[in-house]
């Protein structure tokens, strides 16, 4: 399997005086891999995630996603890159409160100008698979934290992204909701979705990721596999067949779109 | 508070007790766009107040202001030197009731030629050694005073055309005429003369046999009414030898004439001024209250670290006052700079002396605006000061907790509209933008008000300008007349300066005048011509003599515009202005008996004319109806229209040669030229409209800036989900485009309604009905364009924040609280 993410000597400096916030860092993430990035506050986790998402650019070095250099793209090209290749899940959900659940989920597809009928069908499937179909006409303010994060995941997956980025996805949730999201991510990973997960929560990292890197002062202090824990966790929590199927389909499509970027447009 | 907020302290070591100052300063610095918008809004408000206020004051009693400024005399007397000695004349200054005198000034009556050799009519020239004086303190508009023989200062009435500084006049058309150089233009509110010479020059003309008198000016203790003035005149007459007092001009008559010409301007200026003031008030209030309302979170933090409610209120009022004070100061300068040329135009329009910015307008305007700012800031600041700290923080943290709670209560209207918008067949960023106005109904209402006012102002101003142009055209009837022939029967210039009688070397008789008519008609290049005579008549139902214009031939060329009925089409008809009809109680179709030089003729009223000159007391009729009194009434001028392709200059030269033996003279160019008052009104309307539109745009800019700041996290989310910069701009612009359309739909009819409301008031003030071209000024296409103006204002206001929203870095936006 090829690499979905490749960073070569990527360095991010916010000013000339201080040490770089990140790097120089060289990193490759293979397709289907679930990478957890852990580390203390200020270690460069979010900076790394922003570089991968094309929300920020490295001061030095290169970043490629799905085989395409993104560090030299303009704003419009980056926006198109994000909506075609990336799904993002945030700590505070970042749903638009004045749109219904369904409209939130549809938004990335609409921004990409996807056909209405196909998008609506895809959104309905995702909401159904993620167990929130009954809330599709509700506004996010009425949902629990766990439900909101499920909506955010559905929104992240609507364009069948090659890569799912999650920034502290359980950070704002109570333990029960956190558990729901943890299961969801694990299911996605098992279905073949490439995931990059930033978290403080070592247990989450161990549970959901196949590989974990620990950042300290912007440098990789540890890079190890953590698949064993995942399996243990997975054995205890059987994956719903339906979720698995949906994610598999998403992953297959994502591979296709990564190879042919026009497919998702 | 503001004393402590010395900007130079910024960045230095914190000093004890300056916490408030630092909070205020950093508050102003952090919200730079808002500070600039507030400052500019205050500047525009103060400028509008100074411009509108000064002109409204100047327009309210232009004659009185100028008369007081020039120490105008109550009576200007012409005294025959041959009948009253110098001592006798001077002694009149000591009569009981006389409180001030100026003069005696020797005068001379000249019939000069201008630099092109055209006759200027009969002019009264007064010999004065200075422009100043105890009374009739003249305002020298340009140039210098005539101190040497050969120099002349003309009345500012002549300040256009061939009469420029340095131009030469000839004292008469005789061989031994004296050359006079125009060295200045002076304004006499009291209309004391048409020109002024050095006393030695007057003496020289008089020694050469030119006729003249002595001018003496008086102020009286009691001169408020015509009766008092008449009593004063009688006293003067009695104090001088019989027949010595040739004439005594009352300031009340001069005032009447001046006020008639300015009465029409006042409602215009008041309407535009009031609109400007109202708009400024609304914008300043909405900008300031919006700015304070948007700072609630910061206020919450300040309270949580120990600011008392009182300190919070003071800090935020001060934060609004600093940029507005700077703006207000700039507004004082700008307002005074803009109002001076407008006042100069007003001087021309009102025919009065130097108008100046009323001194108290400059301090009052900024104080009023700043008080308004303080009041506007006080309401939301007091609310913020009273709120519980925890609530303030929760309210201020827009993107999260608060939003979640608020979203529980997404209003039905917003849900419905959001749903409709989402399903419109438009790109999603556009429909997202279209749904946005329902998120903040109060702010949306403010923005809408700004767009409505801007569109309304533009619509009203366009209508007003068209009406003024129509009035300008109507006030100079016969503008299609290319050439005027002065028959010498009365002297053309006397129409503008009705003093004295014409004097030409050729003896003009009814025969020569009739021959002039034939020559003109036969001249090659003449398309059509008409003759015109001006006399006075008396009419039943009105007191006093009425200016009467009698036509011969096809007078439709010079027809005044008609409010109702039709123009003269044959003998036995008369056309009257609105005011004449109102004061005589007559209507179209009624009979009117006119008496000219003892000859009474009964005529049928066929039309109501727009002719506000002479206080609307004019009569227009056919000369042929008064054949019994001819040759006492002679055609004074012929108006000529030319065949296509014939130039007035080419036509005039041979005709002039042909007419010279008949004592007649050709004056090319006919009537025309915009009236100064209309130029001023158009300039002022344009200026205030521009300001209103700018302020409306600023109102939108401010609201969109606030909105974009609040929604920056949502924008960040959209961008993270793949919204391109172009889509972001489309979203922000779409959020105001709907408002712009609605604003245009409301603003255009409102502007038309204001026009419909104001114009009749204007007509009433001027004592005239208005004609259809003055009232129905709007074209459908024009209204459509004005409606688009609303969208333009909204889009222009949103352009900058949209660009900012597109540029903001997504990672930063997502971190923004």
Quick summary:
The complex is a heterodimer of chains A (265) and B (817). By secondary structure, chain A is an alpha/beta fold.
What does this structure look like?
The complex is a heterodimer of chains A (265) and B (817). Chain A has 265 residues and is α/β, with parallel strands linked by helices. Helices cover 42% and strands 22% of the residues of chain A. Chain A is built from nine helices and ten strands. In chain A, strand 9 (211-216) and strand 10 form a beta hairpin. In chain A, helix 3 packs parallel to helix 5 (145-157) and helix 6 (175-190) crosses helix 9 (241-259). Chain A starts with a strand and ends in a 6-residue tail after the last helix. The model of chain A is unreliable at 228-242 and 251-265 (pLDDT under 50). By secondary structure, chain B is an alpha+beta fold. Helix content of chain B is 52%, strand content 16%. Chain B has 25 helices and 20 strands. In chain B, the strands form two sheets. In chain B, strands 1, 2, 3, 4, 5, 6, 7, 8, 9 and 10 form a ten-stranded mixed sheet that branches. In chain B, strands 12-13-18-15-17-16 form a six-stranded mixed β-barrel. The longest helix of chain B has 42 residues, at 309-350. Classes of the chains: A alpha/beta (265), B alpha+beta (817). Chains A and B meet through helix 2 and helix 3 of A and helix 13, helix 14, helix 15, helix 21 and helix 22 of B.
Q: How far apart lie the N and C ends of chain A?
A: 24 Å
Question: What is the 3D shape of chain A?
Answer: globular
Overall 3D geometry of chain B?
elongated
The count of β-strands of chain A is: 10
Total of DSSP H or I helical runs spanning 4+ residues of chain B: 25
Poorly predicted parts of chain A: 228-242, 251-265
Specify the number of helices of chain A. 9
């Amino acid at each position: 399997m090829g690499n979905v993410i490749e960073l070569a000597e990527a360095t991010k400096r916010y000013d000339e005086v201080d040490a770089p916030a990140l790097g120089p860092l060289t990193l490759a993430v293979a397709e289907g891999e679930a990478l957890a990035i852990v580390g203390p506050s200020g270690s460069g986790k979010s900076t790394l995630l922003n570089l991968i998402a094309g929300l920020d650019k490295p001061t030095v070095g290169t970043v490629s996603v799905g085989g395409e250099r993104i560090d030299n793209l303009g704003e419009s090209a980056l926006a198109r890159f994000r909506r075609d290749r990336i799904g993002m899940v945030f700590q505070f959900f970042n749903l638009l409160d004045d749109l219904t659940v369904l409209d939130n989920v549809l938004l990335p597809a609409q921004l990409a100008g996807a056909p209405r009928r196909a998008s609506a069908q895809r959104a309905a499937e995702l909401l159904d698979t993620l167990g929130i179909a009954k809330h599709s006409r509700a506004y996010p303010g009425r949902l629990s934290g766990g439900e909101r994060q499920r909506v955010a995941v559905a929104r992240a997956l609507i364009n069948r992204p090659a890569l799912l980025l999650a920034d502290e996805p359980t950070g704002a949730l109570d333990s029960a909701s956190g558990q729901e999201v943890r299961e969801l991510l694990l299911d996605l990973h098992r279905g073949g979705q490439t995931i990059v997960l930033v978290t403080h929560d070592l247990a989450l990292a161990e549970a959901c990721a196949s590989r974990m890197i620990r950042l300290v002062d912007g440098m990789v202090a540890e890079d190890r596999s953590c698949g064993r824990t995942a399996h243990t966790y997975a054995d205890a929590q059987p994956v719903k067949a339906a979720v698995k199927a949906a994610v598999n389909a998403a992953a297959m499509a994502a591979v296709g779109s990564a190879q042919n970027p026009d497919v998702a447009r | 508070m503001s004393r402590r907020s010395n900007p130079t302290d910024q960045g230095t070591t914190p000093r004890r007790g300056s916490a408030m100052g630092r909070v205020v300063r950093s508050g102003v610095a952090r919200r730079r766009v808002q500070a600039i918008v507030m400052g500019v809004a205050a500047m525009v408000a103060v400028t509008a107040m100074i411009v509108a206020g000064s002109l409204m004051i100047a327009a309210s009693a232009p004659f009185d202001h100028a008369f007081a400024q020039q120490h105008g005399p109550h009576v200007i007397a012409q005294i025959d030197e041959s009948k009253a000695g110098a001592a006798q004349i001077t002694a009149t200054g000591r009569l009981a009731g006389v409180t001030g005198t100026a003069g005696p000034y020797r005068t001379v009556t000249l019939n000069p030629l201008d630099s092109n050799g055209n006759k200027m009519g009969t002019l009264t020239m007064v010999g004065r050694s200075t422009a100043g004086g105890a009374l009739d303190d003249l305002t020298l508009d340009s140039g210098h005073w005539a101190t040497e023989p050969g120099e002349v200062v003309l009345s500012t009435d002549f300040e256009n055309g061939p009469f420029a500084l340095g131009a030469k006049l000839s004292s008469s058309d005789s061989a031994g005429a004296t050359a006079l150089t125009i060295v200045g233009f002076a304004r006499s509110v009291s209309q004391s003369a048409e020109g002024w010479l050095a006393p030695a020059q007057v003496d020289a003309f008089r020694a050469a046999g030119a006729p003249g008198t002595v001018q003496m000016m008086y102020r009286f203790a009691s001169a408020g009414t015509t009766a008092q003035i008449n009593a004063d005149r009688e006293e003067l007459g009695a104090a001088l030898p019989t027949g010595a007092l040739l004439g005594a001009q009352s300031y009340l008559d001069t005032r009447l004439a001046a006020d008639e010409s300015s009465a029409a301007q006042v409602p215009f200026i008041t309407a535009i001024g009031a609109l400007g003031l109202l708009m400024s008030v609304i914008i300043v209030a909405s900008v300031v209250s919006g700015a304070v309302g948007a700072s609630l979170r910061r206020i919450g933090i300040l309270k949580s670290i120990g600011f008392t409610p009182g300190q919070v209120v003071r800090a935020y009022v001060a934060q609004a006052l600093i940029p507005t004070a700077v703006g207000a100061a700039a507004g004082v300068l700008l307002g005074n700079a803009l109002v001076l040329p407008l006042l100069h135009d007003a001087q021309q329009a009102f025919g009065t002396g130097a108008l100046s910015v009323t001194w108290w307008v400059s301090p009052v305007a900024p104080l009023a605006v700043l008080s308004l700012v303080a009041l506007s800031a006080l309401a939301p600041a007091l609310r913020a000061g009273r709120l519980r700290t925890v609530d303030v923080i929760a309210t201020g943290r827009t993107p999260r907790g608060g939003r979640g709670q608020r979203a529980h209560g997404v209003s039905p209207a917003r849900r419905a509209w959001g749903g409709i918008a989402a399903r419109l067949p438009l790109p999603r960023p556009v429909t997202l933008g279209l749904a946005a106005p329902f998120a903040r109904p109060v702010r949306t209402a403010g923005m809408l008000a700004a767009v409505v006012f801007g569109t309304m102002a533009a619509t009203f101003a366009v209508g007003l300008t068209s009406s003024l142009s129509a009035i300008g055209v109507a006030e100079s009837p016969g503008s299609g007349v290319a050439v005027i022939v002065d028959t010498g029967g009365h002297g053309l210039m006397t129409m503008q300066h009705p003093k004295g009688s014409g004097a030409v070397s050729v003896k003009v008789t009814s025969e020569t005048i009739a021959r002039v008519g034939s020559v003109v008609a036969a001249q090659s290049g003449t398309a059509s011509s008409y003759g015109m005579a001006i006399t006075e008549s008396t009419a039943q139902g009105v007191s006093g003599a009425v200016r009467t214009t009698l036509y011969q031939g096809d007078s439709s060329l010079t027809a005044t515009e008609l409010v109702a009925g039709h123009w003269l089409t044959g003998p036995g008809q008369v056309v009257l202005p609105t005011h004449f009809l109102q004061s005589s109680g007559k209507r179209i179709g009624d009979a009117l008996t006119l008496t000219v030089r003892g000859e009474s003729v009964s005529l049928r009223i066929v039309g109501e004319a727009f002719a506000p000159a002479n206080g609307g007391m004019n009569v227009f009729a056919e000369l042929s109806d008064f054949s019994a009194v001819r040759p006492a009434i002679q055609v004074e001028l012929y108006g000529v229209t030319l065949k296509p392709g014939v130039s007035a200059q080419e036509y005039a030269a041979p005709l002039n040669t042909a007419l010279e033996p008949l004592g007649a003279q050709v004056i090319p160019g006919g009537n025309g030229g915009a009236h100064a008052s209309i130029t001023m009104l158009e300039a002022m309307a344009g200026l205030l409209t521009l300001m209103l539109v700018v302020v409306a745009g600023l109102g939108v800019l401010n609201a969109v800036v606030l909105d974009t700041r609040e929604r920056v996290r949502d924008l960040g989310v959209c961008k993270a989900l793949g919204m391109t910069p172009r889509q972001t701009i489309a979203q922000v612009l779409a959020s105001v485009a709907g408002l712009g359309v609605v604003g245009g739909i409301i603003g255009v009819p409102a502007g038309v309604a204001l026009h419909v409301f104001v114009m009749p008031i204007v007509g009433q003030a001027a004592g005239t009905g208005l004609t259809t071209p003055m009232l129905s000024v709007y074209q459908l296409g024009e209204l459509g364009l004005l409606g688009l103006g609303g969208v333009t204002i909204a889009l222009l206001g949103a352009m900058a924040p949209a660009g900012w929203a597109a540029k903001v870095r997504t990672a930063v936006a997502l971190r923004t609280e």
